[in-house]
Amino acid sequence: MNAPLGSWSDAPDDAVLHAYANGDEEAARVLSLRLVPRVLAQATRMLADQAEAEDVAQEAMMSCGK
Fold first, then answer.
1. DSSP letter string over 8-59?
2. Pick from 44, 25, 33: nearest CA to 9
3. Residue 63 carries which DSSP code?
């Protein structure tokens, strides 16, 4: 089971993104939970192939950490 999201769960995206940029691991987790569904949905619409969309979404999320 996942740990509770704590203080970042209700924070606006820009505050979570700022915390993530400053190395906050909890903020990174919250940001991922918020963005993955959006990124996957967009990739699925663009590619019309679920497996390919999942690969693209994973690559996009991984590139955010670089």
1. GTTS-HHHHHHHHHTT-HHHHHHHHHHHHHHHHHHHHHHH--HHHHHHHHHH
2. 33
3. H
Total Cβ atoms within 10 A of residue 45: 9
Provide the 10 A C-beta neighbour count for residue 36: 14
Tens digits of per-residue pLDDT, 8-38?
888 998 999 899 999 999 998 998 899 999 9
Q: What is the distance between the alpha carbons of residues 57 and 55, in angstroms, rounded to a whole number? A: 5
Other CB atoms within a 10 A radius of the CB of residue 18 amount to 13
Model's pTM, two decimal places? Answer: 0.71
- Would you give the DSSP letter of residue 61? H
